[in-house]
Each structure stands twice: as C-alpha cells, then as structure tokens.
Design a protein that fits this description.
Shape: elongated
Number of domains: 2
Helix content: 25-40%
Structural class: alpha+beta
Number of helices: 6
Distance between the termini: 28 Å
Radius of gyration: 19 Å
Strand order of the largest sheet: 1-6-7-5
Largest sheet: 4 strands, antiparallel
Order of helices and strands: HEEEEEEEEHHHHHEE
CATH superfamily of the largest domain: MutM-like, N-terminal
Bound molecules: zinc ion
CATH architecture of the largest domain: Alpha-Beta Barrel
Strand content: 15-25%
Oligomer: single chain
CATH class of the largest domain: Alpha Beta
C-alpha cells in the first residue's frame, strides 16, 4: 500500500506533467467512481499531497481528491486496465487500481478542508510533531498508523521508524519518554526522506531495515529480526536494539 513517500514520489511526477494543463476529457471505466462532468475544461493549477491524499487544485475553485488505498497509482502510458483516464493538453494520466479500493472525488474547498482537518500533522509538509501520541494508550506502532495522530505513516514506515529510534513497537504511546518521542520524530523524517530521494526507481532499489526481513540479521547488531502481529498487521523489529 502506498504510504507518504510513494505518494510524494507520484505527486512529484504528476506536477510537471499536469500542472497548467487543461482537462480535455475524463474517461471513467469503473462505475464505482463518479465525477461531476464540469471538471472538463478546467485547468489543473497545482498537484500536492497531504498525508496519503493527493489533491489536484482546479480552476474555478474545485479540487480532485484522490486516495490510492491498497493498489491505486497513476500511469502516463496506457495500461491494460485502468479506472479513470484524465486527458489533458499536456498528456493523459491513467488511474490504475487492481483492487479498486482507491477513492477519487471532486470536492469543494469547504469539503476539502473538512477532509484534511481530520488528519494529524504531516511529517514532511508540517515538520514531524508526535505530540498527539500522548493522547493514546495504544501500542506506539498501532498509534503511528492512526492518521488522526500523524498523517502519512503506514505499516512499512512505522516499523522502519521505530527501528531507527530503537523503540519497542509494543510500548504504550503515552508512556514514551520525551527523548524517545524526539528520536521517533527523527526516525520518521529520516525514513521518509530517504525513500522520497529514490524517486520513481523506488520499487526497484528500496532496501528496508526491518520490514519483511523476519529471521534476517539486524543491520545494526546482527540479531535476527522478529515478526509479530499487532492489530492484524505485521510488525518487524529487532529484539536486541528495540527492547
Ligand atoms: Zn539490532
């Protein structure tokens, strides 16, 4: 599932291809997606991201709000199957989404504001601020997945960041010491920024510290990485570094 860095990489590709282009046609191939027709003829002013949401600002004060969920992605050459094609004067963006959980909708500025107000701080756009973790007694790994507390971190980068911060994923979020919270803030920013730098090559070159490395040696101390399950999701950690 795309998390903040993958979404940022996609936004970095969408911007130069679509910004300042006029929408000439919108072709919807999946009836689950409904878009108002009057976005045709509008200009795409800016493509940006907040948490895992992609926002296209359109001329005339509307926004196209996209959440990729499990398998959504935009391609710029025509794939075999796609849900929506947005055709513009500068080229076409195809919304591809094998499992069809992705969401695409046209919203007003007020609706956009409501949708984004529910999100916690975005570690890249706003600077990393985990003060909201103090509001929950859940295990810190589970809390990091809650988009109301921090926006954009998902299952992969929660494990990766906790390893960087040397914090055990089962620790209660509200019991973390201030220096551990700061280490975790640094861990999140480092993990996310490192991945964003990969750019579109990400899926070929990315190497995880702990994610999906159960049984393999910790890159810091050599201890076998352990996989556990928290809230029905896999967690990976080093039992030595993250006591
Ligand atoms: Zn270790």
């Amino acid at each position: 599932m795309p998390e903040l860095p993958e979404v940022q990489i996609l936004v970095n590709q969408l911007g130069p291809r679509l910004e300042r282009a006029r929408i000439q046609a919108v072709e919807i191939r999946d009836p689950k997606i409904k878009l108002r027709h009057d976005i045709v003829g509008r200009k795409i002013l800016r493509v940006w991201r907040r948490g895992k949401n992609i926002i296209f600002d359109l001329s005339g004060g509307l926004h196209l709000l996209v959440h990729l969920r499990m398998t959504g992605w935009f391609e710029f050459t025509e794939p075999k199957r796609y849900r929506v094609a947005i055709r513009t004067g500068k080229g076409t963006a195809y919304f591809e989404d094998g499992r069809r959980f992705g969401v695409m909708q046209v919203v007003t500025p007020a609706e956009l504001q409501r949708a984004l107000a529910a999100l916690g701080p975005d570690p890249i756009a706003d600077g990393c601020d985990l003060s909201r973790l103090r509001q929950t007694s859940r295990p810190v790994k589970v809390a990091l997945l809650d988009q109301h507390l921090v926006a954009g971190v998902g299952n992969i980068y929660a494990s990766e960041s906790l390893w960087r911060a040397r914090v055990n994923p089962r620790r209660r979020a509200d019991r973390l010491r201030p220096e551990e919270v700061r280490a975790l803030e640094r861990g999140i920013v480092t993990s996310l920024r490192k991945v964003i730098r990969y750019g579109p090559r990400i899926f070929d070159v990315q190497q995880f510290a702990v994610y999906e490395r159960a049984g393999k040696p910790c890159r810091r101390c050599g201890t076998a990485i352990r996989r556990t399950v928290q809230a029905q999701r896999s967690t990976y950690c080093c039992p030595q570094c993250q006591r």
